[in-house]
């Protein structure tokens, strides 16, 4: 490996670390809103910054803790919703319980329309 190859690889690694560090420090943790819908209708919206337990419908229980939300209880037979990973402020993915028609998503704080035309 030549000297310039090492310098190039070092520069790429340094740039990647700077970008990762900037995203980690600049994106506010707990700045999201948990949206819960049941049967296609809005059940509630909750801040990721507040630690709480939410009973969603008759059989599902959600927990918001440490800037993450996860399903901790469900009365559905397969329990797949409980095995799904916790969602955090980045909002990638969703938690879905198909038998109970519960969908949990995260929106960035302030996300949504700026105005409503009437």
What's the alpha carbon Rg, rounded to whole Å?
20 Å
Low-pLDDT parts are none
Strand order of the largest sheet: 2-1-7-6
The level-1 CATH class of the largest domain: Mainly Beta
Query: Into which percentage range does the β-strand content fall?
Result: 25-35%
Largest sheet, described in full? 4 strands, antiparallel
Total number of β-strand segments? 7
Distance between the termini: 65 Å
CATH topology of the largest domain: mini-chromosome maintenance (MCM) complex, domain 2
Number of helices: 2
Number of domains: 2
SSE ordering: HEEEEEHEE
Percent in helix: 10-25%
**Based on CA inertia axes, which overall geometry fits?**
elongated
Assign the CATH superfamily of the largest domain: N-utilization substance G protein NusG, insert domain
- Protein structure class: alpha+beta
Structural summary, described in words:
It contains 2 helices and 7 strands. It is α+β, with helices and mostly antiparallel strands and 118 residues long. It has 2 domains: 1-29; 32-108, mini-chromosome maintenance (MCM) complex, domain 2 (Sandwich), CATH 2.60.320. The strands form 2 sheets. A 4-stranded antiparallel sheet has the order 2-1-7-6. The chain starts with a helix and ends in a 10-residue tail after the last strand.
């Amino acid at each position: 490996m030549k000297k310039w190859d090492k310098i190039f690889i070092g520069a790429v690694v340094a740039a990647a670390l700077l970008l990762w560090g900037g995203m980690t420090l600049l994106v506010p943790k707990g700045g999201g809103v948990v949206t819960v819908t049941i049967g296609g209708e809005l059940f509630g919206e909750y801040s990721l910054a507040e630690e709480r337990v939410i009973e969603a419908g008759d059989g599902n229980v959600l927990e918001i803790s440490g800037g993450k939300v996860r399903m901790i209880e469900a009365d559905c037979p397969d329990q797949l919703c409980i095995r799904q990973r916790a969602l955090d402020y980045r909002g990638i993915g969703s938690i879905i319980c198909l038998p109970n028609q519960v969908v949990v998503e995260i929106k960035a704080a302030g996300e949504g329309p700026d105005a409503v035309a009437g």
